[in-house]
């Protein structure tokens, strides 16, 4: 056994022992992941669904885009305000998708895959609306200046809902590329569960080709065209030139470099290997800088051990860096490789151990003994810089709260927030680990979706690696748990792929569809339409009408909350199932 391989093996075993003994404080990472997804429900804009779990929120922004003649209802509010900023929203969707892709089993094991896919889809549905034409992308709704002069609930908004777009006369390549990356990554996340939606997302994503988007498009399609693009433009666009110590919605170089390092580590570089090695060198720089092994060129740490990048909302940089380290740890481990830094060679488990240290700091292992995720643990921020959390819900206070009244009666209140915005990751402490739980201290108490999004994958990975009971509702999850509901009827369908095989270069899929009665009444004479069905089907009875099917004769009634399944086999995308009629 070579010295390098032996070193990797020994360091990995030692680090694994440290990780397995590291959960001294008993952090429930599965519960933290579950709460993170609750925060995304609290940030929803638009018409809220019937399964909304954050009950103190109501419908809002129902006329977004109407002044410009476009439907921009939906999406997410960025932070403690009510502006829908396209760039951080798209980054957040990319991070949720990346977590769902690389840590799919881990997310499933804590029974959060369905909630994760719903959180992703809430964003991508909005992006599809914002991208109605090939060269037009609506990138923002709401005016930051006027919005920040008001302290009011989303349901009461009186500020202008001006929409801003990108087009040939108003370019914005960074936003277009991030949106493309979001849809490309989401297409991978949905591929096994809703292939029709996956293909739709991919079609939208293919209309931009900057490095970050192209890297995700290569992973989504396997098309060498995109790999060639990131290689040909590596130097001119900074991909192999920038060595960075941060990863965020505003700087994606480290994420790009780690994505492309994966291609090299998997032996798929081919003729592009030399350039991919340059990308990997920069990925290693980022990881080594975080790990404090980069010959002095390291990311700063607080005395308590937190990565410290910027004064304003620093935890977003710690959360995203920890997620990248967890991802890179897996990539190195799969390739039986180590991280070669200027000061040391580190086995993959050491990266995961450091990622865990950042997660533990966030959850309460810090000088303040405070969880910086609202609603997690015994002590967490209760004066969050967030309009909707700080003002009584419309279900409690029925009268409108105006801009000035909001500041006078609610913003300056000494009392805790009336609404606990569960899962919100606040900005966090300063460089000395000091934290002031003050609503006016927006640098430290304002949460953002871009800070929370990387935590879903990170916590899911740690729950698997470290163990623990998981969230209280976490049971052994099924192969698939995403339920795309049929619109306007009390029936929902659960699509899953239960087997695959290849015959003469054609890949076939065995699809299982569960039909569930979600109403409190029995359903009879259910008639379904199956579009794009090209293979064999079992479990439904064809009618005389084309593409129309009924339940078997022996199943006369689908009782409340009961379900029935059918199966079909075909190559290509899944069939589209819809309800035509029922009684």
Automatic annotation (TrEMBL):
This is Endoglucanase. Its main location: secreted. Residues 491-571 form the Carbohydrate binding domain. It comes from Stephania cephalantha. It comes from the Eukaryota. GO terms for molecular function: carbohydrate binding; cellulase activity. GO terms for biological process: cellulose catabolic process. Residues 1-15 form the signal peptide. The active site is at 385. It is an enzyme of class 3 (hydrolase). It is found in: Secreted. Belongs to the glycosyl hydrolase 9 (cellulase E) family. SUPFAM superfamilies: Six-hairpin glycosidases. Its EC number is 3.2.1.4. One of its GO terms (cellular component) is extracellular region. It catalyses: Endohydrolysis of (1->4)-beta-D-glucosidic linkages in cellulose, lichenin and cereal beta-D-glucans. Keywords: Carbohydrate metabolism, Cellulose degradation, Glycoprotein, Glycosidase, Hydrolase, Polysaccharide degradation, Secreted, Signal.
